[in-house]
């Protein structure tokens, strides 16, 4: 029997050869934070082939080197910025451009906010079919040192091949601990410090890296791992089961370190206040928080409604939500575990007097949930999303179900990156 080694996938050299250099102007940014320009194809001067260029900014003329051709576009790296944007700034992080975590550290902050608003508006138009004026993006009070949770990774230390000498005991172990390298799915880049993380996290990260490398050198790791660092008021834990306390405008919330919670505490007071105001503006008497977690939106909005109900499929999150209501002396909020197949079962609120807040995961709402929501038929919905693209996909279904957009407000919970939160308010159209 013969075994044939896997061959590296052959480079598709159409329409451009591998590492062919081109000059082009960047005309826009994609919603993935990538610069986009167009060039004529060889032999077709009237064509406009799309080139995607990470870390290039709108208005710049750049020399690029092609590294991948797709069916409808090519990808290229910047070789030289020939004409720089006036909004280009010096990145704070020395790893910017190599680390896959940030896309915009070279972009002035006011322009980051402007482009995030523009991207929401374009997604709303092209994906949901709605032309609507999106409010200016609300920026973060801190543009660096804001992130209260990071999860660096490391792979298992590589054993020497049979034909290699063992590593000398006094030779440092080469063990990258960090995040994915830009443009890769598996290659880790060593990240000793992360400027968008809080100062306490970076202080703890230094010692934690030393501990991990010492254990790895001693042979303690047979596999890689993801490490948690979560900052709660200056105290950093690496224990997934630690109970965290977060103060949001005087509201004290407890949850497990491993559970989901917004990772920019500096903008949370404005963020939760806006959601409460949009929900209250519906003049509904009742509020339902349909992805309530440990109660962030339900409890921060409770004083604006007669009664509030939080629904969550996670039993442990419901326990914390109930404890948080008691700890904050909020008596008009109840929480229940909702089965995915009957999420609103047992809810006694009149739909005509109810507003629903939803904050689904990045993938958006699944169709079964939306059909249950439309069957219930609340007066209004405040849709919080960390991925405007999936939010706009869902908005098409809301519009078909008789709802109309009344407000769209982006929030920059993730400065220096392409990510953002978008709060869209929908109201049921009068019949």
Distance between the termini: 73 Å
CATH homologous superfamily (4th level) name of the largest domain: Vaccinia Virus protein VP39
What is the helix content?
Answer: 10-25%
Mean pLDDT: 93
User: Strand fraction band?
Assistant: 25-35%
CATH architecture of the largest domain: 3-Layer(aba) Sandwich
Task: Describe what you observe in this structure.
The radius of gyration is 25 Å and the shape is globular. The model is unreliable at 1-7 (pLDDT under 50). The protein folds into 3 domains: 21-88, OB fold (Dihydrolipoamide Acetyltransferase, E2P), CATH 2.40.50; 113-144 and 245-428, Vaccinia Virus protein VP39 (Rossmann fold, 3-Layer(aba) Sandwich), CATH 3.40.50.150; 149-237, no CATH class. It is built from 7 helices and 21 strands. Helix 1 (109-127) packs parallel to helix 7. The chain is α+β, with helices and mostly antiparallel strands and 431 residues long.
Would you summarize the structure shown here?
The protein is an alpha+beta fold and 431 residues long. It has seven helices and 21 strands. Strand 15 (286-289), helix 4 (296-301) and strand 16 form a beta-alpha-beta unit.
List keywords for this structure.
431 residues; alpha+beta; OB fold (Dihydrolipoamide Acetyltransferase, E2P); Rossmann fold; seven-stranded mixed beta sheet; 21 strands
Set down the secondary structure blueprint:
Layout: E1 21-29, E2 34-41, E3 44-54, E4 61-69, E5 73-83, H1 109-127, E6 149-150, E7 153-154, E8 177-180, E9 188-190, H2 199-217, E10 225-226, E11 229-232, E12 235-237, E13 243-248, E14 251-256, H3 268-280, E15 286-289, H4 296-301, E16 307-312, H5 315-327, E17 333-337, E18 354-358, H6 367-376, E19 380-385, H7 388-400, E20 403-411, E21 421-428
Parallel strand pairs: 3-5, 15-16, 15-18, 16-17, 18-19
Antiparallel strand pairs: 1-2, 1-4, 2-3, 4-5, 6-11, 7-8, 7-10, 8-9, 11-12, 13-14, 19-21, 20-21
Helix pairs in contact: 1-7
């Amino acid at each position: 029997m013969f075994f044939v080694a896997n061959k590296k996938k052959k480079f598709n050299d159409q329409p451009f050869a591998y590492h062919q250099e081109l000059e082009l102007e960047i005309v826009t940014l994609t919603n993935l934070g990538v610069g986009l320009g167009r060039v004529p194809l060889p032999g077709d001067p009237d064509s406009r082939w799309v080139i995607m260029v990470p870390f290039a900014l709108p208005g710049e003329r750049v020399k690029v080197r092609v590294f991948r051709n797709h069916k409808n576009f090519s990808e290229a790296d910047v070789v030289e910025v020939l004409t720089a944007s006036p909004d280009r700034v010096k990145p704070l992080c020395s790893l910017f451009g190599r680390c896959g975590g940030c896309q915009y550290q070279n972009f002035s902050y006011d322009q980051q906010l402007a482009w995030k608003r523009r991207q929401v508006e374009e997604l709303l138009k092209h994906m949901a079919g709605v032309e609507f004026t999106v409010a200016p993006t609300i920026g973060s009070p801190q543009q660096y040192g804001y992130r209260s949770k990071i999860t660096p990774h490391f792979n298992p230390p590589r054993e020497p091949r049979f034909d290699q000498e063992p590593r000398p005991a006094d030779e440092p172990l080469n063990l990258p601990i960090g995040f994915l390298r830009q443009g890769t799915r598996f290659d880790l880049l060593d990240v000793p410090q992360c400027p968008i993380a809080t100062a306490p996290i970076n202080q703890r990260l230094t010692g934690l890296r030393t501990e991990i490398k010492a254990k790895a050198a001693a042979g303690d790791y047979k596999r890689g791992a993801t490490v948690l660092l979560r900052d709660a008021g200056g105290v950093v834990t690496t224990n997934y089961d630690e109970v965290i306390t977060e103060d949001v405008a005087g509201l004290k919330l407890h949850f497990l370190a491993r559970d989901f919670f917004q990772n920019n505490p500096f903008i949370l007071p404005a963020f939760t206040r806006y959601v409460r105001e949009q929900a209250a503006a519906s003049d509904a008497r009742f509020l339902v928080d349909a992805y309530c977690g440990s109660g962030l939106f339900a409890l921060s909005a409770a004083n604006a409604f007669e009664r509030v109900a939080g629904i969550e499929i996670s039993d442990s999150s419901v326990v914390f939500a109930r404890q948080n209501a008691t700890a904050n002396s909020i008596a008009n909020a109840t929480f229940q575990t909702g089965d995915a197949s009957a999420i609103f079962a047992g809810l006694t609120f009149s739909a005509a007097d109810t507003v629903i807040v939803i904050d689904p995961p990045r993938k958006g709402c699944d169709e079964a949930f939306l059909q249950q929501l439309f069957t219930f038929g609340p007066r209004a919905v405040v849709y919080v999303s960390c991925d405007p693209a999936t939010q706009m996909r869902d908005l098409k279904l809301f519009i078909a179900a008789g709802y109309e957009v009344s407000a769209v407000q982006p929030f920059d919970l993730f400065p220096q990156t392409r990510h953002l939160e978008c709060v869209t308010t929908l109201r049921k159209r009068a019949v």
